[in-house]
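dumping this here so i dont lose it again. seq + smiles for copper (II) ion
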Amino acid sequence: MPAEYTVFNALYSEFMFWSIVVGVFTFAWMTYTLLVHRQGLVSEKTLEKLTPGVFPKERDNLKLELTWIIAPSILIAWLVWVSWQSLVGSWGTIPDPLAEDTFEMELVGYQWFWEFTYVENLEWDGKGAAPDGSITFTNTTGGVEVGIWDDVATTYGASGQLVVVLSDLADHPYNLTSDGVMVGDIDAKGHPYRMGEHSVITVKVIVEGGDDIILAERHHISAGYVNVGEAWIPNNNDILYRMTTKDTGEHPAVLHAPFLSEWGVKEDVSPGIWTIMYFHPQETGTFEMTCTEFCGLQHSLMIATVHVVEPLGGAA
Ligand SMILES: [Cu+2]
């Protein structure tokens, strides 16, 4: 079921309503007819003597015939109209790739997995309980500077050890300096930080007893980052997928069709052809993307996870 804010949600309800109306009418009439005209209930005398191949012309009812032609025609015309309008609403305007709130990505289907490639940077906050502004992240050419300010230091500094962790790469702890402010070169291990990486910087305090309290967490994805089966996309942006399918070397490039049921969008992707698909998430959360074009033995396992996150400062 597509999200409530999508045009397909209203369309689904419209079709469901009329299907129920027609269904109830048809089955009620059918049941009535079956019961009233069952064998033995109508006497031999009044039984119609029908001749095979001859239409019982004397039973003509022009009004009834016109009704059952015109009424369904009006209903079908109406459903065509509302479907057409939702398609226009959904596909009518291609998002401008250069616009601030357009987030472009590449999506390639393989037998049997989805590969996402970032062409724009994305940054968002994970969980965090530190007082507002008491932990700051600043992008610099060398990496990300983390600043931890006095109020966090005094709250946790005496009882525990503040730690900054850069995950996906390696745990990299920093001790709190005496003035309560720490600016660390997170890239000390020589990793090409923010270059084609998805990195998570976590600032946590390890309190006595060994428990971790996460104070702040920031995620970075840089243009060039490639990931299989999982993607993060910014909320309230026009998401523009550029899509094709490729071979894996072992398996050939075949037809696939990514289907994002949350937004009701689906599109065929073919070898050697780049095509697009776009949608506009308006809620954060985790959603599924499946393949809806039979593409071989493990077609049903081609499921990717799409996380909608609240971006920092819009799409980069
Ligand atoms: Cu597929």
